[in-house]
Design goal:
By secondary structure, this protein is mostly beta strands. The protein contains three helices and 21 strands.
């Protein structure tokens, strides 16, 4: 009887969820697939569709159960082309209130890379390697921090935890960019349809005391009630002799045109949109400048905050 009440409540919540955010409906569709033990496809708008596939559950060494959903969001872009984004979504069982919680997901580049099934308490993937090998992943120690899929040129997918504040997730992304030395390569991170972070690691600058500063351009976009807002930052990290990387502060920018373009000869290079389109060089010889004067605008360095 309790299960029937739960199913009725869940279906009613799904109807209400249609009037809520897109990411809310994705999460609820995953819950529906788990509770009803069936797969589903739902058209959210004429241009958007969610397909959910419940694979089953995995158990770690502490007897925590993780429920696994393949979720594919198909949509039509402005050019009329059909695209899709894929998520491996993970729920756990809250023993206190006996409910399921959405705890995070892996953003997967291609639907073909989603797992096929669960077997022997492991997640089974078709890796599409030359030797057609099958890859399995255990949750014995909890959700893996990184899913590495493939052989010669594997793709790494990081677990995005819903238990962490969003700024902590930004921090994780930038730390990985810097550690992997992905200079001048744009990285886009998407939290379903609500939040997007685009980052560009420019490289490092050194002051006269040999202190190392790492520079990341970062744009944080969010969409609330169909209104999109952007926040832009030049993020500054320090790197000590132990190669420990630490966020130390940022410049908040008014325009994307005010981002630096590159680092050259130990200077930060800006192409400013000012009247004469002057190129401005900024050095960190005496440490991080308190004020960043770009001719059109001046920005103050904010310590340990964005």
């Amino acid at each position: 009887m309790k299960k029937n009440h739960l199913i009725v409540w869940l279906l009613l919540s799904l109807v209400a969820c249609k009037e809520n955010s897109f990411e809310g409906i994705v999460e609820q569709k995953g819950l529906a697939a788990i509770y009803l033990n069936q797969n589903s496809k739902e058209t959210y708008t004429q241009k958007e569709e969610i397909t959910s596939l419940f694979l089953g559950n995995l158990t770690d060494k502490h007897k925590t159960s993780f429920y696994i959903i393949n979720s594919i969001h198909s949509f039509t872009n402005r050019s009329g082309n059909r695209n899709s984004t894929s998520y491996l979504m993970v729920y756990d069982n809250n023993k206190k209130n006996k409910s399921l919680n959405f705890i995070g997901y892996y953003p997967i580049a291609f639907p073909e890379q989603l797992p096929n099934k669960i077997k022997n308490n492991k997640l089974v993937f078709n890796t599409f390697c030359e030797d057609n090998r099958i890859m399995d992943v255990s949750f014995e120690n909890g959700t893996p921090h990184i899913l590495r899929l493939g052989c010669n040129h594997p793709d790494d997918y990081e677990f995005v935890s819903m238990k962490k504040p969003f700024n902590e997730r930004i921090e994780t992304i930038n730390q990985n960019l810097i550690k992997k030395n992905k200079v001048n390569k744009f990285t886009k991170y998407r939290h379903l349809q609500k939040e997007t972070i685009t980052t560009l690691f420019l490289g490092s600058l050194t002051d006269k005391n040999k202190n190392i500063f790492l520079i990341v351009n970062s744009t944080y976009s969010t969409k609330i009630n169909k209104i999109k807002t952007n926040k832009r930052y030049i993020l500054i990290y320090s790197k000590n002799h132990n190669n420990t990387i630490k966020f130390i502060g940022a410049y908040g920018l008014l325009s994307s045109q005010h981002f630096p373009n590159k680092i050259k000869n130990n200077k930060l290079i800006f192409n400013t949109p000012c009247k004469y389109n002057n190129i401005i060089n900024v050095n960190f010889e005496n440490g991080i400048p308190h004020l960043l004067n770009l001719g059109c605008s001046t920005y103050k360095f904010i310590k340990n905050d964005i």
